[in-house]
Amino acid sequence: MKKLLVFVLIVVMVFSVLAGCSSSGTPSNEGQNTGQNEQNTGQKDDVKDQNDEEPAQEAEVTELTYWIFNELHADMYDFAEKAYNEKYPDAPVKLNGEVYPNAEMHNNLLIALQSNTGAPDIVDINLNFFSNFLQGDIQLAELNDIVEPELDNLVQSRLDIYAKDGKYYGLPTHIGATVVYYNKEITDQAGVDIDAIETWDDYIEAGKQVLDKVGVPMTAYEVSNQRPFWPLIVQSGGDYLAADGSVALDSDVNIKTLEFMHKMMFEDEIAIAMPGGNTTVEEFWTFMNNGGMASLIMPSWFMSRFTNYMPDLAGKVYIRPMPVHKEGDPRTVGIGGTATSVTKQSEALDIAKKVVAEAKLTKEANINIWNTLSFDPVRTDVWDSEDLLKPDEYFGNESFFEIMAPYMADAPSPVNAELSAAAQDLVISNVMYKVFVDQSATPEEALKAAADELRASE
Question: Which among 176, 255, 264, 183 has a CA at the least distance from the CA of 220?
């Protein structure tokens, strides 16, 4: 009897449990479970709301590589990365830079582009090598979409040197306005007023006075490079190549200019061959720093070399525009340069273009270039900004842009075409040495021989 009672109780309990577990959608449980169902539904909604309130997943970071040959240029990319990420927080980037020696980097880049593998997303290309990358099937990306909206604010000649057939393949870093850096301590000692030097004849007479009173040369020539020959011929309307890219190295203008320089060295005796051969070596920096000569004809980007390598000249160096041969000649010309380009191998072309725009094209980028590198920016609408007009204690406590801005907007630049790199090589390794070092050729002979060699390579 007891066993039967236990069995009945178990059956009743099982039936109760099954009834409690039946679907809430059944008519028998509809009324009794409505409250419980609403409670359960509310709990599910709470969980859903909690999930919705979780932080959104961070945007995927695009990593881009860049190559440079001057470690100082890394600052431009640090600036660009920060500026880009502030402007495009939903598509952030991380830039990874690599620094190589100048010639090695350009050789590696050429190989990478020709083999279609291994190139960086972004790269700085020296003007001396740039024409090598505009031949055949060009592997640099066109930048017209980011350049054209800013054309009215940019010095056109500095864009043209990185263009071909109306397409821009590089963004300029600076104008590279050629100036004369005077050691005013020396010129004052000689009784020379640098503001009275308007023509090259004035310059020669001042040089003779410096030599007589102080006993140092007025200037020096790069005999293993190409300055001041290159800026002097461009100032007079000459160049290594004509506008159509044909050889013009032995033009009358170029010959007369080299003869003019030859006369300054060997007849007027106010110029010498540069110690160390060029402006990039410590031997020259030491010579200039110690007051070895009264002036230097170089582009504005050389300002940073003064401040970095010639500390004893602080406050003594004054910047003035180039003298001219005749009225109407430009008082400055743009020489040298570094293009920033995007390679077609980049898997994030549009992002890479935006990054280089933040490095080179914006107002803020151009002000940064001046503040950090002392390079004269290509945006004309920043030249009157407070940062750029600020006096520089090193350079006579004067403002570079107050002195040079009136001359820079129309500054001509050299032609950059297929034979540009080869022409420069011939001037650097051949012409300057033959004329000014071993004197084995006259200016005309040296230029004609180099031009013939260049034509033979066409």
Answer: 264
- The predicted structure's pLDDT at residue 336: 87
Can the peptide bond before residue 101 be classed as cis, meaning omega within 30 degrees of 0? no
pLDDT score, position 26 = 33
Residues linked to residue 66 through DSSP beta bridges, in sequence order: 97, 122
First to last CA, the chain: 120
Both tokens of 184, joined, read 């005013």
Q: How far apart are CA 52 and CA 56, in angstroms?
A: 9
Write b or e for each residue in 263-302: b if 16 or more Cβ atoms lie within 10 A of its Cβ, otherwise e: ebbeeeebbbbbbbbbbeeeebbebbeebbbbbbbbbbbb
- Point out the residues of the chain with pLDDT beneath 70: 1-57
Q: How many CB atoms lie within 10 A of CB 191?
A: 12
Instruction: Give the length of the chain.
Output: 458
Q: What is the pLDDT of residue 48?
A: 39
Provide the token pair at 271: 């110029």
Model confidence pLDDT, tens digit, residues 61-98: 999 999 999 998 999 999 999 999 999 999 999 999 99
Q: Is 52 exposed, middle or buried (0-12, 13-18, 19+ CB in 10 A)?
A: exposed
**pLDDT value of residue 54:** 54
Report strand pairing: 163-164 vs 167-168: antiparallel
Specify the pairing of strand 62-68 against strand 122-126.
parallel
Residue 457 is predicted with a pLDDT of 86
Output the pTM of the full model.
Answer: 0.83
The values of phi and psi at residue 252, to 5°, are -60, -40
Distance CA 248, CA 261 (A): 19
**For 271, phi and psi rounded to 5 degrees?**
-125, 150
Q: Number of C-alpha atoms within 13 angstroms, CB side, residue 89?
A: 2
Closest CA to 299 of 162, 436, 393, 400: 400
Measured CA to CA in angstroms, residue 387 lies from 246, 366, 367, 372 at distances of: 42, 11, 7, 11
Pick from 130, 103, 49, 48: which is nearest to 340 by CA? 130
Residue 321 pLDDT = 98
- Report residue 89 as tokens: 């927080």
SS3 170: coil
